[in-house]
Structures are given as structure tokens and as C-alpha cells.
Automatic annotation (TrEMBL), chain A:
Organism: Branchiostoma lanceolatum (Common lancelet)
Name of protein: Electron transfer flavoprotein subunit beta
Electron transfer flavoprotein alpha/beta-subunit N-terminal domain segment(s): 59-251
Biological function: The electron transfer flavoprotein serves as a specific electron acceptor for several dehydrogenases, including five acyl-CoA dehydrogenases, glutaryl-CoA and sarcosine dehydrogenase. It transfers the electrons to the main mitochondrial respiratory chain via ETF-ubiquinone oxidoreductase (ETF dehydrogenase). Heterodimeric electron transfer flavoprotein that accepts electrons from several mitochondrial dehydrogenases, including acyl-CoA dehydrogenases, glutaryl-CoA and sarcosine dehydrogenase. It transfers the electrons to the main mitochondrial respiratory chain via ETF-ubiquinone oxidoreductase. Required for normal mitochondrial fatty acid oxidation and normal amino acid metabolism. ETFB binds an AMP molecule that probably has a purely structural role.
GO molecular function, one term: electron transfer activity
Primary location: mitochondrion
Cited InterPro entries: ET-Flavoprotein_bsu_CS, ETF_a/b_N, ETF_b, ETF_beta_N, Rossmann-like_a/b/a_fold
Pfam families given in the database record: ETF (PF01012)
Highest taxon in the source lineage: Eukaryota
UniProt family annotation: Belongs to the ETF beta-subunit/FixA family.
SUPFAM superfamilies named among the record's database cross-references: Adenine nucleotide alpha hydrolases-like
GO biological-process terms attached to the record: amino acid catabolic process; fatty acid beta-oxidation using acyl-CoA dehydrogenase
Gene that this polypeptide is encoded by: ETFB
One cellular component term from this protein's GO annotations in UniProt: electron transfer flavoprotein complex
Oligomeric and partner information: Heterodimer of an alpha and a beta subunit. Heterodimer composed of ETFA and ETFB. Identified in a complex that contains ETFA, ETFB and ETFRF1. Interacts with ACADM.
């Protein structure tokens, strides 16, 4: 019922006359909470954004075989934020999670090289992986957050292949935790986080109490490159392997992809010599 | 950029001895007569900081004919209306004479050399080029063949009023043999577009350079462009299997073979590779294209002593061997310039030297294993102080961007004096150190970067604007330094007009004499790209 034992309340029940004792115990509790962020970061393996995407001849999806993959850029930003929290001594442990085939382990290794302490690989392969949706991922993330006793989940705002922008929000809902999405700045203040969000109209500042879910937007930070000493260290860090069933998540597809097509080929433009010609051509094509 | 002050003009004129009138009865073309050693004045060395030259900016660059007053216009005819009519007959509507259309073609990329060409011709076929040259030869009209106009020594623009023959419209790919990897295309094909056309077939050009978005294969061939892949794939002398060129008299020389091996007589196509358009206009080429590597990885390494750099290079060659495809060098100053002027991020902290090592292979796992064992070895032996590795295309591109954009970043400093020289590898960085000492605080920056694998260093000195003192300290001292260690005064960039005075620094008298004789044989009237390569 109480995920973290509330020393402050307990002490005040015992000796309400001992004011200083209560204050001391409360601040100790707050200190205990402050340096104790256990951060869960989701990292997704996606096709590298510099690669030219090709649609499969049968229009069932995009070609992924033999295509270079890398960590989703927003997941990199999420990972970087977690590492910065650890450097500021606000987080004590970072766990990197990825759901996917065996190659997802490479993405977790990259996260470990950036500064995560350990990794969790939820193995999902073949058709199950192709049909995996944010809802499946959020259920896994939510269960993991509870099992690992994480009090902060940082995800990228969306993945560059799905562009769904749903996982963060769904994870928060399943956990019944507050969420601060499209974060462009995160600061810890006492027992809550102050997050500046990028919204259509500009910037919005919100306060979220912990535990919480944050999704990272582009301007949150600039992710670091993993340097050689860290890459070497990462080789020794552990990656635990699980299956979706271990978390009680059923991966039956809820969506069916009917078709994937290339965008229409851009038609060549026409140059005209005068406004009259322009109007004439517009009339001819029935636009005007 | 201010107009040249009069005291500088006087100073410059005083430096030159009077130019002897050439004797036209000599067997060699008149303009080869050995006159004074009138070196090009200092303005020519200054590369002005302008990213794209609009017509207005182009007009601010002084005309080469004014800047090099000792250069006399050769005994060529001038373009008349009659000539224009003939051109219009030969290439239909593709004759440009409007100043607005021509200005961009009269100035080179670096904004140093500006010609006064009045006519721009845009042929589409080899036959048109042949007809143009036959006519020009008959009329004794000088001509400059021009590709992407990205050269750095003023070799692609007119000096006086030469006719500009732009190859840009000759951009057809003629054929591609996927099995042998031989591509046959016209000379005006832009390298980036060639790569785009080759990519679906899993092939790529054997050379790649920073100007790939604009440079054309004909120009690359004419200048024997090196580039970033030369360590692995070799230079164009080896990769170009055939060349079709039009000689000065309009004859089409068809050496357009697609054969890997053909030892039947003299290999004439080699004459056109690197001769900067002075022996013939390249109109088509067949190029041997290697396969796009299945796996490319890049490691950026930081070292704090040059001894470490050489050890790292040695270890890379030993442990990577056949997958090593590039070893590029940058010093701290060049990393700082891309960080300050272009706001690029360097993943490593400040180190004195940086090495960019690229591997290309067919099997990612195999390459990664080799690269990881190399990196482990480097860290263990302390040959490297820090480093980072990338295998994803996006990260590979960002690491390469640090090296590829140094030249662009330097322009933002204002005036850049560029030197591209080959020196012995043990003395690779010494030139930069000596230059820094010599130039002192007068210059904004002295940077050295380049192709460590080929021992080719690009020394660049920047100032806010042209500085006579700095220039005088640099030239001919840099070239003398290079000549002393028997290096090349122009590793990749060619001679053009800006380096022609230093031809003898890296070539003996008899060698240059034979070059001139060849030129006289192939272009007796000297109409092809005159005033370039050879000093007066």
C-alpha cells in the first residue's frame, strides 16, 4: 500500500510532542527519497535515421533485413537525461529496457555504454514483434517499473518508426502515475520534479510528484557519444533476459497493418514566363 | 573586402622585373617563353570567406588580369559577333552572354580568382564539344573547360576573356555493368548524383570528397582528385579505365575502354588524368566502381602526442589491414574551428590530435571484432587517450562531418591561405608547428588537418582579412620548406593559376621541359586552359 515507507508520518504518530524529532525524521525521509531515484529508461531499436527506407514489394511493411539499426534518437535523449540525473547524484541506479529480437541487446549495450547500470531485454521476435504496439510495450514497462521498484520512468516521446507517441502516456496511466510529456527541461525540487514541456503554444511548466513518467523531447539535452573507457566497462554490465509472458502480458495483436506504401512520387514542376501563363495553366488544370 | 590600396599596387609592381616580349618564331608556343619569375601577388593567396558567391559578391573579387599585372594576355583572338553566331549554330540556344548568367562561372569557389569571360557555352554532346574546339582552334580563341567549378587553385575559371565551356549539361550515364562494376558516363555528371544512381546497384564511386554535391567526374579526372577514400581504393589513375577526350583541334580521342587490363601500346588516357584540362577536354569516362561496403564503422580517437598518432596509425594498419578504409587527421585547432564556427559537437574532450579511422567491410560482426580488439589494444598500450566508435550511419555521418567541414568552417574566419602538401610522414605535423612559430600572433589561426594515410597535410592560415605580412611570411617559405624535404607542393589540388610558380619546387627542369613539349604537341596554339600549370 505504501510503496515507500513513510517515516515522517510514522514518527509523528508515535510522538507528536517531539517536534524536532519529527522534523529531523521527515527531512531524513526526504533526503532518503532525494538521492534514491531508480530510473527505468526505455530504449528502442529502430532503423537508423540516415538510412534510406524501402517499402517491401508486397507493401506489408518496410525492409528491415540487413538494414542498419540504431537507438531511437528520443530514447538516446531519455538515456542521456537519466545519466545526467545520476551525475548530479539524484539517481542511484539506471536500468535500460528494450523489447525486441536478439539484436535489441546491441541497443541495450549502447545504453550501458552511455551510463546505465544494468539492462533488461524482453525478447519478442518474429511476427509478434512486427505486430507489437505501444499498448503491449506500456504494459511491460508498467509491470517492470513496479517489479524493479523504479520511481522514475523516462521514455522518448515517440519512436521514429512508429511515430505513435503513446507509450509514455499509456505507461503512466497503467501505473496511475503522473506524467510530464515532451519534456525540454527537468529539474528536481524537493520531492517533486519541475518539468518544462514543449507544447503547441510554447512552453508549459508543470510540477509532477514522484513517482512519475517523463517523455523526452528533442531539446531536452544533447546525448553523449559513448567513449572507449565506458564502452569497455559496459561489456561487464549485466543484461537480464525475459519474455513478455514473464510480465503477464499477452502479445496478441490488437492492430492489423493493412498496407504500407511509398509516398506519391513528386511530380516535376513547370516553369512559366508570365502571370498570364500561370493563370492559364491553373485554369487548364482545373485548379482555378 | 576593400579594393587594393595604391601603395600595395606600387609595392607589387616594384617586386616584378619587366616582362620580356615573347619571340613568336620559337618552336614552342609563344607564351612558354621563360620570362621573369613574376610570382603571383599576395591577393591571390587569400581565400575570402563567402559561402556562396552571388553576383554582387563576385563583383567584389578583383579581376585576375588586374591582380596579376605581369600576366600578359596571350595572342588569342577576341570573341566577335560572328563567333557568337557560329556558336549559336553549333550549340543552339545554349550560348550565354548575359553578365548575370556568366558571373558565377567567372569566379572560383574560394572567391579568389575572377576572370572576364564573356561567353559561356553549354554543349550536350561530344560532337558539340568537338565542333566548338575545332572552331576555337581555327580562330585561335582560348577556352576554359569547366566542370563543377569547385577547384581550389583557380584552374577552372578564365584569367582573361577565355570562352568558358561548361560541361554541366553533359550529365548522362551511358552504361553500367553491374557484374564488372564499370560505369560509363559523360563528364558533367555530378559525383553525388552518380552515387545516387549507383546506390540501388550496391556500387559507389571509388573516390569521394567534400565537394561531392557540386563537383563533376570530368573535373575530378582532369585534376586527379584524391578524396577521403584514396587509402583504400587508390587514386583515379588506377580507377579510371577509359577516357574520351576532345583535343584542342577538335579531334575526338576515343580511349573509352571498359577493360580492366589492356596493355596494347601507350596508355594515353593517363595524360588527361591530372592535366587540368590543358591537354584535352574530357567528355566521357569509364570508371571502375567498388561495392558499397556492407558495414562501415568510424572511430574518433584523441591523442596527446604525435608519436602516439604514428603508433596508432601503425597499429591500425596491422590490426585492421584489409578493412581499413580511411585514416584522417585533425589537430586541436581544426577541431576548435568546426566547434566555434559551425557549432558542431566533438564527442571527445580537448586533445592535441584527433584521428578518424574508418573501416569498411562486408561483415559487420567481423569488422566490429577487429575494431574492438584494436581499440582495446590502443587503450591498453596508452596509444590513445580517449575515443569513441560509431557503427550507425547517422553517427558515422556526424563523426565524418567534423572532418569534412573544416574547410567550410575556416572560411568563416575571413581570409584563408590554403596549402595542400605531401611531406614525409615523420615530419607530418612539423610544418604546422614551424608555421605557427613563424606567423606568430598575426594570424587568427594556423590549422593542420589531412589525410594521414597518404601523408598529405592541409595547412591553413586564417586572418580576418588579407594580411600582407602574414602572406609574405608564408610564401614562398612554405613551398621552400616542402621542397627541402622533397615533398609535393600540391598534393591533390593541382597547380591551376595559384600554384604555377612553384612547379619547379617539385619537378626538375628536364621533367617540366618534357611536359611543355607534350603540351606543345597536343595543343600547339595553346588554346586549352592557358596561363595555368606552368610558370612564365
Amino acid at each position: 500500500m505504501w510503496p515507500i515507507f513513510d517515516y515522517g508520518r510514522f514518527v509523528s504518530i508515535i510522538s507528536s510532542s517531539d517536534v524536532y524529532g519529527v522534523v529531523w525524521m521527515r527531512s531524513l525521509a526526504q533526503l532518503h527519497k532525494m538521492a534514491n531515484l531508480r530510473v527505468l529508461v526505455g530504449v528502442k531499436r529502430v532503423i537508423d535515421y540516415a538510412v534510406k527506407i524501402r517499402v517491401k514489394p508486397d507493401n506489408s511493411g518496410v525492409v528491415t533485413d540487413g538494414v542498419k539499426h540504431s537507438m531511437n534518437p528520443f530514447c538516446e535523449i531519455a538515456m542521456e537525461e537519466a545519466v545526467r540525473l545520476k551525475e548530479k547524484k539524484l539517481a542511484k541506479e539506471i536500468i535500460a529496457v528494450s523489447c525486441g529480437p536478439a539484436q535489441a541487446q546491441e541497443t541495450i549495450r549502447t545504453a550501458l555504454a552511455m551510463g546505465a547500470d544494468r539492462g533488461i531485454h524482453v525478447e519478442v521476435t518474429g511476427k509478434e514483434y512486427e505486430n507489437m504496439t505501444p499498448l503491449h510495450v506500456s504494459k511491460i514497462m508498467a509491470k517492470l517499473a513496479q517489479d524493479q521498484e523504479a520511481n522514475l520512468v523516462i521514455l522518448g516521446k515517440q519512436s521514429i518508426d512508429g511515430d505513435n507517441n503513446q507509450t509514455g502516456q499509456m505507461t503512466a496511466a497503467l501505473l496511475d502515475w503522473p506524467q510530464a510529456t515532451f519534456a525540454s527541461e527537468v529539474t528536481k525540487e524537493n520531492d517533486h520534479l519541475k518539468v518544462v514541456r514543449e507544447i503547441d503554444g510554447g512552453l508549459e511548466t508543470v510540477k509532477v510528484t514522484l513517482p512519475a513518467v517523463i517523455t523526452a523531447d528533442l531539446r531536452l539535452n544533447e546525448p553523449r557519444y559513448a567513449t572507449l573507457p565506458n564502452i569497455m566497462k559496459a561489456k561487464k554490465k549485466k543484461i537480464a533476459k525475459h519474455k513478455a509472458a514473464d510480465f503477464g502480458v499477452d502479445l496478441t495483436p490488437t492492430l492489423e497493418v493493412v498496407g504500407v506504401e511509398d509516398p506519391p512520387v513528386r511530380q516535376a514542376g513547370q516553369k512559366v514566363e508570365s502571370t498570364e501563363e500561370l493563370v492559364a495553366k491553373l485554369k487548364d488544370s482545373g485548379v482555378v | 573586402m576593400a579594393m587594393r590600396p595604391s601603395h600595395v599596387i606600387r609595392y607589387v609592381l616594384e617586386q616584378y622585373k619587366s616582362y620580356r616580349v615573347p619571340n613568336v618564331t620559337q618552336s614552342l608556343p609563344s607564351w612558354y617563353t621563360k620570362g621573369t619569375n613574376g610570382s603571383l601577388d599576395s591577393w591571390s593567396r587569400c581565400v575570402h570567406g563567402s559561402v556562396a558567391l552571388t553576383q554582387k559578391k563576385a563583383e567584389r573579387v578583383p579581376l585576375s588580369s588586374e591582380r596579376f599585372p605581369q600576366l600578359k594576355r596571350g595572342e588569342f583572338a577576341r570573341v566577335t559577333d560572328g563567333d557568337l553566331q557560329v556558336f549559336e549554330r553549333l550549340v543552339a540556344s545554349r550560348v550565354l552572354t548575359e553578365p548575370g548568367d556568366i558571373e558565377g562561372h567567372n569566379v572560383d569557389w574560394s572567391g579568389t580568382c575572377r576572370g572576364a569571360g564573356q561567353v559561356l557555352l553549354r554543349p550536350k554532346t561530344t560532337e558539340e564539344v568537338s565542333a566548338i574546339l575545332r572552331y576555337c582552334n581555327g580562330r585561335r580563341l582560348a577556352a576554359v573547360p569547366q566542370g563543377g567549378n569547385t577547384g581550389l587553385v583557380g584552374g577552372s575559371v578564365p584569367v582573361f576573356d577565355e570562352v568558358i565551356i561548361s560541361m554541366s549539361l553533359m550529365d548522362k550515364i551511358i552504361s553500367l555493368d553491374e557484374i564488372s562494376g564499370v560505369l560509363v558516363c559523360q563528364a558533367g555528371c555530378v559525383v553525388d548524383k552518380i552515387n545516387g544512381a549507383l546506390e540501388p546497384h550496391g556500387l559507389m564511386t571509388p573516390h569521394i570528397l567534400g565537394s561531392k554535391g557540386s563537383c563533376q567526374i570530368g573535373g575530378n579526372i582532369s585534376t586527379n582528385a584524391g578524396g577521403l577514400r584514396m587509402l583504400r581504393y587508390g587514386n583515379l589513375h588506377g580507377n579510371v579505365l577509359g577516357v574520351e577526350a576532345v583535343l584542342a583541334n577538335g579531334d575526338v580521342l576515343d580511349c573509352l575502354s571498359t577493360l580492366r587490363k589492356d596493355n596494347t601500346g601507350y596508355d594515353l588516357k593517363q595524360l588527361f588524368i591530372g592535366s587540368e584540362g590543358s591537354l584535352g577536354v574530357v567528355t566521357a569516362a569509364s570508371v571502375l566502381c567498388p561495392r558499397i561496403p556492407g558495414a562501415i564503422s568510424v572511430a574518433l580517437l584523441g591523442c596527446d602526442s604525435f608519436a602516439q598518432v604514428l603508433q596508432t596509425y601503425d597499429a591500425a594498419k596491422k590490426m585492421l589491414q584489409e578493412i581499413l578504409s580511411a585514416v584522417e587527421f585533425m589537430d586541436r585547432a581544426s577541431m576548435e574551428v568546426v566547434q566555434e564556427n559551425l557549432q558542431l559537437t566533438c564527442p571527445l574532450g580537448a586533445h592535441r590530435y584527433y584521428l578518424l579511422v574508418e573501416t569498411s567491410g562486408s561483415n559487420a560482426a567481423h569488422d566490429e571484432e577487429k575494431l574492438n580488439s584494436l581499440l582495446g589494444h590502443l587503450m591498453e598500450k596508452g596509444m590513445v587517450d580517449d575515443g569513441t566508435v560509431a557503427t550507425e550511419p547517422s553517427k558515422v555521418q556526424s563523426l565524418w562531418a567534423l572532418r569534412e567541414n573544416v574547410a567550410v568552417a575556416l572560411r568563416a574566419d575571413g581570409c584563408v591561405y590554403k596549402y595542400d602538401v605531401t611531406v614525409p610522414m615523420s615530419r607530418f605535423y612539423d610544418l604546422v608547428v614551424d608555421t605557427r612559430e613563424r606567423v606568430g600572433t598575426d594570424a587568427t589561426r594556423v590549422v593542420g588537418y589531412g589525410h594521414l594515410g597518404e601523408s598529405d597535410i592541409h595547412l591553413n592560415v586564417t586572418c580576418p582579412k588579407h594580411n600582407e605580412d602574414v602572406f609574405d611570411a608564408l610564401e614562398p617559405w612554405v613551398y621552400d620548406w616542402v621542397a627541402k624535404c622533397k615533398g609535393s607542393v600540391s598534393a591533390e589540388h593541382g597547380m591551376g593559376i595559384l600554384k604555377r610558380d612553384y612547379l619547379y619546387h617539385s619537378n626538375t627542369g628536364p621533367v617540366v621541359l618534357l611536359m611543355k613539349q607534350l603540351k606543345g604537341l597536343m595543343d600547339p596554339k595553346g588554346i586549352l586552359n592557358p596561363y595555368k600549370i606552368f610558370p612564365d
